[in-house]
Amino acid sequence: MGVFDGVKVLCFTYAGTANIAMRVLGMYGATVVRVESKSRPCNLRVSGPFRDNQPGLNRSGYYAMYNNDRYSIAVDMKHPKARRVIDGLLLWADIVAENFSPGTVERLGVDYAAVKAVNPEVVYLSISSQGQIGPYREMPSYGPQLQAFTGHVYMTGWPDRVPDQIGQSYPDFITPVYACAAVIAALDYKRRTGKGQYIDQANVEPTVHWLAPAILDYTANKVVEDRAGNSVPYAVPHNAYPCKDEDSWCAIAVMTDAEWLNLCKVMGKPELATDPMFATLLDRKKNEARLDSIIGEWTANLTSGEVMEKLQAAKVSAGKVMNMQEIVEDEQLRHRGFYKTLDHPEMGPYEALNTAYVLSRTPSEIRLPSPCIGEHSEYVCRELLGMSDEEFVELLNEGVFE
Amino acid sequence: MDALLSDLRVLDLCEGGAAVCAKILGDMGADVIKIEKPCGDQARNTGPFYEGIPHHERSLFWFAFNNNKRGITLDIETVDGQQIFKKLVEKADIVVESFHPGYMEGLGLGYEALEAINPKIIMTSITPFGQTGPYKDYRAYDIVAWAMGSIMSVTGDPDRPPLQVGLPQAYIAGGTYGVEGTMVAYYERQNSGLGQHVDVSIQAALTWINSELVPAWTFMGVIASRTGAFPGRRGMIRPPLLWPCQDGYVNYLILAGQPGAERNKAMAKWLEDEGFATEYYRTKDWDNFDWMQITEEELKELLPPLQNLFMAHSMNELFNEAVRRIITLFPVATPKDVVESPNLEFRKYWAPVYHDELDTTIVYPGPFALLTETPPTIRRRAPLLGEHNREVYVKELGLTVKDLISLQGMGTI
Question: Whole-prediction pTM value?
Fold first, then answer.
């Protein structure tokens, strides 16, 4: 019995955000239907990497990452008879989620007002970059732009250089978490009170929350801190150190006297612990660059795994900078069941990712590989909407389905 | 207005950045009680500080992630403390904690013990690697957790060490994903009447945050690496993503093919309007612009007019013009720029909170979304140390003032 068994989710979505927000519901048993279009396919379907490097709407590993455990119906929204299907879906849904640029769902006739008119209790989620209301509402952006816009990029990098972006679409993995939590809570609220509601989620807003201390430094102190690489005021050493293999690093952070002593012992340099240049935190702060250099000389002869293991054994906080191969093969994540192999009709087996948390009594059930485009048009109409054979065939022949 | 979670009572034992979990539950209306060691949470020592004065009641980090909570002190390593905690659990819905695996069990306060007291209790545990597994005992300060979550490997410049974010965010990520897991467990409890243990791994959360780069490895055997201001793989010819301008930097990506055509045309027009356009920009066929075909020579034509345009203006000038022309160019905003954003102002995002103890009002980031029936709200500042001991222990739990004096004397509160 899945947590969200019987919960019906309808997605008018593309790219990340709202797709990511609703993915979790599907993984815990909700019935998630995504409305797609072959003539205007989701941008992720046309972005690689593709299986065997062969492009195709059903061959994108990128799309697959964010679309497991849901059904795909492909509808020509401009077709005059499309409403027979769309209206059925609007009535069917408990939750509607969309992330098109503001104004789009109004033009398609599936905005909150339209849905509420036929389904007053619906919980309707809109995720957009800047929100549904406001002077920037029409400024679209993807995650890489938004992370710059929200201050995260300014805060990241070396003091003497152009700042750095954080991974790729960082905010697109912040906002959907808040949105998902709010939707679940709103669904429960609806169940208790009979009241649905509209959620206007701007990607900017939760993303700024993660920088709240820096925001408060400005609002309360009128201070904007400079970038500081990997350093922090309260710990030295605190950096990533180069290891034996090419482009391989280990992060090390020391916060107590005991950890400092143990680090020196493990490095085979116990005398460093009481060296006047490094004995106290304040000393180490003054001579941080020199100390980083000394540590780097030690780590350069070891693999990142060896540095991590030796230091952890001595109760010092150290961790490999895992690259993408290492993270996919990682035994701790595999122990948690974080990776699940799904068998896709066109792509064959691929690794899907689980949630970051494991529930002890009702864990997730990852069941369905990401759908081929329009794979479930018939299933959705006949089984979920209860459409008759005749009606489905009529619409099919008219070209409503793509 | 109503709130989403106003019927819920949360006990928050988290330290440091994981505290964001219970704060978000508080934003959604829950009654959150922060439980600190009598000497106070380590987060209180983390800067920045109000007026730059380090003090355990002036930490902006503490303020940011502990507003919407009341606060009590309790030493759960004492027998009195454990008994009091169990009494609190009787009436609570959710316990959130971030101690290393085994700590709570060792005190007789693990999930099984709490479940026996209150079968509805949801316990959310936030740790770097999870409750079990080969790394469960590894110590991971924020930068170490960040490293082991793969996202560090793709942040930074190729010729320097990989980077963390300026404000450490690994525990913030774990705490935030903890909210999602807690909500799934809460909804399930509404079905079954029973709680459960939500085991959050920061490493898993960060890996998910970096998941876009998984398929490059699993499908193509390509390991993404840091490329600094130039997106795309090392060794490929690429334009920069970040460009200097008069007073900072802007994020502007030159897109290829059909998706980029409209924008590139709009940018070419902007260059023309300002006198920076060249023959190249006037004659380029943007509909068929293909990154895979670009040469070093073409880059020499492509970049300088843009560099000149950007250096002629401030971030805000460029952004305002980009909004007007619908070109995807964004400032690399500082916290000041974020605070001054007319869009956030319009949306009433900012929440002023009065700090009676400082006799000042501080403006906080406000509701994380706009909801028509049950909007998130910021209702109270972060608590002073032990601020609500009397309210919770005496008024709600039925201890006497004499009991409090005894407990204080023993160092239990």
Answer: 0.97
Q: Give CATH for domain B9-209+347-410.
A: 3.40.50.10540
ipTM: 0.98
Enter the CATH code of domain A8-210+336-398: 3.40.50.10540
pLDDT in tens, B305-359: 999 999 999 999 999 999 889 888 999 999 999 999 999 999 999 999 999 999 9
Domain with CATH 3.40.50.10540 in chain B: 9-209+347-410
Q: Which of A162, A178, A240 sits opposite B147 (nearest CB)?
A: A240
Residue A172: active-site member? yes
For the segment B277-301, what is each residue's pLDDT rounded down to a tens digit?
Answer: 999 999 999 888 877 778 888 889 9
Contact A324 B217 (CB under 8 A): yes
pLDDT higher than threshold 80 for residue A399? yes
Residue B87 CB-density burial (10 A; 0-12 exposed, 13-18 middle, 19+ buried)? middle
Cβ–Cβ below 8 Å for B364 and A212: yes
